[in-house]
Amino acid sequence: MIRLLTLSLLASVCLGELIPVSNYIGQHKHKCDRELAITGALVQDKIYTFGGCYPIPYIVDPSVENIFNFNDNHNNASETIQIYDIQKDEWTQETEVKLPFPWRSASTQTYQQDIYFYDVQSSQNYQNTGKMWKYDTVLKEFSALDELPFNWHGGLKTCANNVRMYFVGSHDAYQRNMIQIYNIENGVWEKPLFPNLRFTITQMLCGKDAIQFLGTVFTDEDDGMSMGFQHKYSGLIRTDYTTGDTILSGLRVELPIAYNTIVKTNNDKFYHFDVKDEETVIIVVDTVALENRTLEALPHALTAPLFVPYQDDLLFLFGGGKSRFYWGAKKPTGTLKTYSHKLVLESTVKFVHQKNE
Ligand SMILES: *[C@@H]1O[C@H](CO)[C@@H](O)[C@H](O)[C@H]1NC(C)=O
Ligand SMILES: *[C@@H]1O[C@H](CO)[C@@H](O)[C@H](O)[C@H]1NC(C)=O
Questions:
Q1: Which SUPFAM superfamilies has this protein been placed in (predicted)?
Q2: Are residues 195 and 131 in the same domain?
Q3: Looking at the structure, do residues 139 and 214 belong to the same domain, yes or no?
Q4: How far is residue 134's CA from residue 278's CA, in Å, rounded to a whole number?
Q5: What is the mean pLDDT of residues 3-30?
Q6: Ligand 1: residue whose CA is nearest its atom 11
Q7: Which residues surround ligand 1 with Cβ inside 6 Å?
Q8: Is residue 333 part of a domain?
Q9: Last residue of a domain, one of 148, 176, 194
Q10: Which of 51, 90, 91, 197 has the fewest CB within 10 Å, making it most exposed?
């Protein structure tokens, strides 16, 4: 157990405890061919993990020069499902059902008992396909849905609310300002929303009264090349569910844009991973309280874990590892092994502003 006290002058302070839990039993390794997180989703008290990518042994032919081949296919994709029961702290292998085909990775969106998959990468295909899949965790059934009927720019982001899934490309602002709407009940694509601001986003969540984005408003002076590699302030942007009316909330957050930052959402909060040379900081943006908190949570440079916020004060981390690509001056150090941990925060009320002595 590691107890960490975070102290910094202006930022909020958080006391957290990192507690090992039962180890992930699936095959996925983050360093497979790219640094990929385990594909997973939370449904009630269970975390489901799907497929994955793992290295397989191979023999190098020393007579073949191969310095430019970065994409050697010495790995395989899995088609199995594992289930972590949070209450029992126990993993089980799903034996009755497999993925429709082996997956390296996929993006997920949960709605009630169903998990939706998009951006599915199969074992051979490195291209993201536009096809969606649904897994019903109660009936234990996969179904193939239609192709996504739109284009997007950058990574596809989603959130779900009130029988609808909302889709936006992270860099759609270069070309369009549209929010695509999928009606979960009848499988119909509804009329998109057209926000009155153009903005690039790092993540979105479906709040109670509005779609919330962490993003940067795009102006005509911004050219594509300069973005993405700078420290830019992100704002909290809100779009009305019915009118598309979009406003900037006034909350500004400085999100370090580094390789392999991971942002996941849970209810009203954004979580942004800032992987540094020797530690990983999690920046939490609370879209209701309109404030940020910094959790200097992990004493390792942990990239690409499956990060599952379960409750406000309880977060799960599975897999991940040391980065092979790093921006910092130093190679990451530390004794990071397979990560299966829960991060227990000492209740949200204990987030206090505290002065350095
Ligand atoms: C690769 O994965 C497939 C499907 O999961 C499996 O049937 C096959 O045996 C694996 N191949 C190797 C070399 O591990
Ligand atoms: C969080 O908010 C504080 C105070 O509003 C601000 O000084 C700090 O820069 C913010 N942190 C981040 C990561 O943006």
A1: Kelch motif
A2: no
A3: no
A4: 38
A5: 68
A6: 76
A7: 56, 76, 78-79, 102
A8: yes
A9: 148
A10: 90
Which ligand ends up closest to the CA of 79?
A: 1
Predicted TM-score (pTM) of this structure: 0.86
Rounded Cα–Cα distance for residues 101 and 122 (Å): 7
pLDDT at 259 over 60: no
Q: Give me the pLDDT at residue 229, please.
A: 42
Give the H or E element holding residue 75.
Answer: strand 75-85
Same domain, 136 and 170: no
Among 76, 101, 123, residue to substitute to test ligand 1 (most atoms within 8 Å of Cβ): 76
Write the pLDDT tens digit of every residue in 39-97: 999 999 999 999 999 988 877 776 766 555 545 568 899 999 999 999 999 999 999 99
Instruction: Render pLDDT for 296-323 as a digit per residue (tens, 0 to 9).
Output: 777 777 888 899 999 888 999 999 887 6
Distance 76 CA to ligand 1 centre (A): 6
- Structure-token pair, residue 111: 């709605």
Q: Which of 13, 233, 251, 254 is the best mutation target for the ligand 2 pocket, counting ligand atoms within 8 Å of the beta carbon and taking the most?
A: 254
The DSSP output letter for 147 is: E
Query: Are 125 and 34 members of one domain?
Result: yes
Helices and strands: H and E segment counts in the chain: 0, 27
**Which residue range is the domain that position 116 belongs to?**
29-54+73-148
Chain-wide mean pLDDT for the chain? 81
Range with the poorest average pLDDT among 126-135, 199-208, 270-279, 323-332: 323-332
Produce one character per residue of 219-231: b if its CB has 16 or more CB atoms within 10 Å, e if not: eeebeeeebeeee
Indicate which CATH number applies to the domain containing 121.
2.40.128
Cα angle, residue 253 at apex, residues 356 and 310 outer, rounded to 5°: 85
Residues 124 and 170 in one domain: no
Dist. CA 115 → ligand 1 center (Å): 25
Task: Take atom 7 of ligand 1 and give the residue whose Cα is closest.
Answer: 78
